[in-house]
# Entry
Amino acid sequence: MCGIIGYTGSENAEEILINGLHSLEYRGYDSAGVSVSTPDGIKTVKCEGRVSLLEEKLSLFGNLLGNCGIGHTRWATHGEPSERNAHPHNSESLTLVHNGIIENNGELKASLIELGYIFKSDTDTECLAHLLDSFYRKDNDPVSAIIKTVSCLKGSFAFGVIFKDHPDNIYALRKDNPLIVAEGEKGYFLASDVPALSAYAKKVCRVGENEIVCLSSDSCRFYDLQGKEFGGIFEDYDSNGFSASKDGYDYFMLKEMYEQPEAIRRAVGHRLNINGLPDFRVDNIPDSFFENIDSVSIVGCGSASHAGLVGKSIMEKIAKVPVSVNIASEYRYEPPVSYGNTLTVCISQSGETADTLAALRCSKANGSVTLGIVNVVGSTIASECDYVIYTNAGPEIAVATTKGYMTQVAVLAVIAAKISLNKNTVSETYVKEFCHELLYKIPNAVNSVLSRMDEMDLISERIKDCEYLFFIGRGSDNCAAPECSLKLKEISYIHSEAYAAGELKHGTLSLISDGVPVFALAADMKLFEKTASNIREVKSRGGYVVLACNEKIENTEAYADAVFMLPDVDPLLSPMVTVTFAQCVAYKTTLLRGYDVDHPRNLAKSVTVE
Ligand code: F6R
# Structure
């Protein structure tokens, strides 16, 4: 949610800032801006819209020459997307970029207006800029001004600031929002995440909660909230071969979809021992951990909670433990009733989602043991969970998650297998075969669906102008349906809903009329006969049925207007294959409708506000 970048060194700052902002656009893209310390003072250029527009504006009105600067790409929380509300925001003595929310912005603003400050934007950030200025002007000490400012703030935030009196330094702080500093060959960098700096970073340091950093061209100093200096811990940066570029694909989403088979193999392969049985010692989780679990509470948002639905289905079936799936934003109001030793599993690709973090803290306060399933190494959720299993999916840039979701399901399946093994709820042979299928057959099946991308053309052409559609399924197909539906609606903007196939007739069937598309998911052969009845109900009301079904089902044309055959896999794992099909349909349909696949409107990747 909002991307922050900063650079100070011997190179041209503007170019580095713009490059960084392009990589950070997944965090928000409704407006962008940069401030650079030039020989004529700090200059700020910003505009509504994407970073490419900012780039054009800079080249049209004159590039900013200087070696120190900060930049920002915004996802609006306070005030509409506009140039006026774009960051950086300036006050008398400084320029500032910010990510997060200042919750007490209203009262602070009132007292700053009394002090004579004039507000030019609707943002909470401007309040932060003026507050910092008011303290700085008292003793001209950046660190002390930041400390005093932070003591007045409520909310979660990360910010970077350049003071006019210190034009070659960037000061920054974070609380509940990510911030990274990196050492490069030609200076120091600041960013909301590591991939934005992958072209420059040699060493990186994740700034800790409430730590103040001061970057100069040849040093990075750290201060605590008492103003005491301490040494920050930098680690060698290794991109692990992952690249944050499109690598020849038209879109990040497409690239990430194609990375799924390998990502699943990585996520699973790391957690199987030489006998092919689940083993989490590589994650420093002792074997005994899985023996004492009486119930599991899964927490996540959006697709992460959809992965949880698949996890629940597998765990309850093979490990026989009761599992609840909780939407993180509701967790505080409706916490699950705990039953015996409850393990709370927090799922988050980014590891920074504010609602999931809040739920995690709440569950810890209630005494639950917490396990994170996280992609971004060192992220806040990963650091705060008692144990963490990394999904090893590599950077996910497209706003709509694909490989993130897929690896979350894969890890949940291995956890389910491990609990089953330790609790003896199924035989060792069963666990071995299940894990074998997950490691080999599933990635191949995902690959096979991706290789038939062209088959989606007909389906996408048929649905591209419809107003709304439905995904229905039973059993594990019902677990896949919410993710299929979300994928399509979030990028194509076609309203879509997911229903248990048998539920349609309890009200929603009234929405089916001539030509309304219904995707009937039937990867699980055993349940097809019943789903077929629901398909008939839809067909007899004029609905257009797309059947995505197990390849072993025969005579499919009798049921549906269009058919996509899914490779036959274990029904428990079939959502991974079915969702791949839906990703392809969503991708193709979005292209046909002429929208930007990677940057759906109103959304951002890392949702760090509640
Ligand atoms: C949808 C999507 C979101 C995320 C959700 C949680 O494609 O990406 O629904 O799954 O915002 O994000 P993380 O996993 O980063 O906590």
